[in-house]
Amino acid sequence: MEALWSAALPLLRQHVGERNFSAWIEPIRCFDSEGEIRLEVPSRFYQSWITRHFLPTIRDTVSELSGAPCVVRVVVATESPPERRLPQPVAEPIPPPPMRAPKIGQLVPNYTFDTFVVGATNEVAFQAAQAVSAAPGKRFNPVFLHGGVGLGKTHLINAIAHELLRRRTRMQVACLPAESFMNLLIVALKEDKMNGFRDRFRQIDALILDDVQFLAGKERTQEEFFHTFNALYGNEKQIVLTSDKPPAAITGLEQRLRSRFEGGLIADIHPPTREMRLAILRAKADAAGIELSAEVADVLVQRSGTSVRELEGALNRVWAMAAVRGTQMTPELAASALGPYARPRNTVSVEIIQQLVSNKFGLSVADLVSHRREREVSYPRQVAMYLSRTLAEASFPAIAEKFGGRDHSTVMYAVRSIEMRRAQESAVDQLLLGMENELRGQAR
Ligand code: ADP
Ligand code: MG
């Protein structure tokens, strides 16, 4: 169980985000308690927070990894029996950041320049970010970075902030999502503290605002931001903005803000090339101490989506699965681990899956859902159950219901056994890949 927990950690980090992870998930201690996963937390407040916000995600993640539903309980550490070693009490949920913190906002510690892999698709953005860190407010102002989700915008602006704070001890940096800017503004308006708000933002030396597309349609926030922008810009303070699209494509953005945004350097980031994706994988694996063969890296690159975030997710998933099963990260394992997860979610129904599988095996749907036990029927049935779980993302009981009202443990067993065969027999993997492709085609 404890191995399962440590394997689940990188996945949870992805699911809940860096900040929640270090504040809430990392301090948890995990114990095995008669087949249950027992998570010990330092206080009642912590317990209710975790239960409310993260328990479903935790349960799903460990269940997926172990291949069977897991019972997860969150308990307060002092409730544990006295003979057991108590976890170290965690006084503060948020550990102190190792580096200097920005004046406003928070940084992700490892989003730095030296962990960023540079290549043709992000070179301009990278160089702009470095130039800004070396000479803030001088050459490029504002800098506007845009590109799709998971391509490194947040990473780059964190790197800028780290570098500014490292080089200039007096520098006051604000690095925050545009949404937080708005929330701070709302609070200030409500509490009638607008002077304080303005002072706070106009006294900083660099304003780094992430995801400004969020400001679209938020007129009051845009107005306030416009004044903040002008005040800082007029004083030659550095401004860096990111967005998922270029300024001209943000509908609901006031013309005067758009022209400010377009007045500086605009750099876009595109999805990484194959070589870059391999280099990124290599870097992430090295940083995490994961041994990654070229063959496995190939599978990861082929089977995960185009963004770096998906690539990282794929690496973590395969690594976790290997750790749980106590095996090496083989290309086969990678392929099976990535089957259901690495591609966009879709909406194949269990019925469509039953149809396709019966066709493939020359059976009728009635045979497939019957209680007949011959191999010619039971193997296709298991395959259909597996696909229902991975592609239709139906629950075990829901699948059991649709396969002639069986017990859900039968479905769990089927899914697990196909998973195992898929990892071991390439013919099974090929067959599944073919059907997954067809089904995905139908889902569109
Ligand atoms: P965005 O803000 O553009 O949606 P992020 O900056 O959050 O994307 O990046 C998603 C993940 O991918 C992060 O973990 C980040 O460290 C990683 N990443 C993105 N681009 C690179 C890169 N060029 N080199 C290393 N890691 C990267
Ligand atoms: Mg981002």
What would you say this structure looks like, in words?
- With 444 residues, the chain is α/β, with parallel strands linked by helices.
- 55% of the residues lie in helices and 10% in strands.
- The chain folds into four domains: 2-76, GMP Synthetase, Chain A, domain 3; 104-269, 3-Layer(aba) Sandwich (Rossmann fold); 274-341, Orthogonal Bundle (Helicase, Ruva Protein, domain 3); 350-443, DnaA protein, C-terminal DNA-binding domain (Chromosomal Replication Initiator Protein Dnaa, Chain: A).
- It has helices at 2-16, 18-25, 44-53, 55-66, 123-134, 153-167, 178-190, 194-202, 219-234, 255-261, 274-288, 294-303, 308-325, 331-338, 350-361, 365-369, 375-390, 396-402, 408-424, 426-443; strands at residues 29-33, 36-41, 72-76, 104-105, 143-147, 173-177, 206-210, 238-243, 265-269.
- The strands form two sheets. It has a six-stranded parallel beta sheet, with helices on both faces. It has a three-stranded mixed beta sheet with strand order 1-2-3.
- It is elongated.
- The two termini are 39 Å apart.
- The relative contact order is 0.08.
- Residues 80-97 and 341-345 have low confidence and may be disordered.
